[in-house]
């Protein structure tokens, strides 16, 4: 009788220990995932779109389309940022230079963006039939135009500061030349 009970007790204790470990491990992983900060900051264009969508006197469709297009443009910028960051983060993770929590945060950010993109496509199809197919093309053009404008502003600012520096340099060279004569 005792030789039969020992293996059964061993299996019961082993299964109990493994189930306890599994339960605690899953609970800890869920707590860690809940404590992670989002990869991206707040999404104000999404909030604006939803505010316009839920206005009591309904907002005009053109305004909703413009808000959705602006939301898609921000999403395009975020997706490009994720694509650029993925390879670098993978390399850093493989070398052990970043922790698993940062990688988990990044993966959650990617999943959030996937859901955001599908939501934008469904909202676009709800506003105009088949607009979901082309909204991100238009949004990419808007995002590219915004980047071009930012570069133009930076070039103008740099040109102004360079002009001041060159004028001062030219004046110093002219003064040095006059002194040498």
Comma- or semicolon-separated keywords:
2 domains; 181 residues; flat; mainly alpha
Instruction: Name the average pLDDT.
Output: 91
What is the multimeric organization of the chains shown? single chain
Work out the number of β strands. 0
Helix/strand order, N-terminal first: HHHHH
Q: Care to give the gist of this entry?
A:
By secondary structure, this protein is mainly α.
Describe the protein:
By secondary structure, the chain is mainly alpha-helical. The protein has 2 domains: 1-35; 39-146. The chain has 5 helices and no strands. It has helices at residues 2-35, 44-53, 61-95, 100-127, 135-180. Helix 3 (61-95) runs antiparallel to helix 4. The longest helix has 46 residues, at 135-180. The radius of gyration is 29 Å and the shape is flat. The relative contact order is 0.08.
């Amino acid at each position: 009788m005792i030789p039969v009970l020992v293996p059964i007790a061993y299996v019961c204790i082993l299964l109990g220990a493994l189930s306890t470990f599994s339960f605690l491990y899953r609970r800890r992983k869920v707590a860690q995932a809940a404590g992670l900060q989002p990869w991206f900051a707040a999404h104000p264009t999404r909030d604006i779109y939803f505010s316009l969508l839920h206005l009591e006197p309904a907002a005009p469709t053109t305004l909703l389309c413009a808000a959705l297009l602006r939301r898609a443009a921000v999403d395009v910028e975020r997706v490009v940022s994720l694509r650029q960051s993925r390879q670098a983060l993978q390399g850093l993770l493989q070398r052990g230079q970043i922790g698993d929590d940062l990688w988990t945060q990044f993966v959650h950010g990617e999943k959030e963006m996937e859901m955001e993109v599908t939501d934008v496509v469904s909202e676009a199809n709800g506003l105009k039939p088949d607009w979901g197919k082309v909204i991100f093309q238009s949004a990419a053009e808007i995002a590219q135009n915004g980047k071009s404008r930012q570069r133009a502003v930076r070039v103008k600012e740099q040109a102004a500061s360079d002009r001041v520096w060159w004028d001062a340099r030219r004046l110093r060279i002219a003064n040095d030349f006059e002194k040498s004569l």
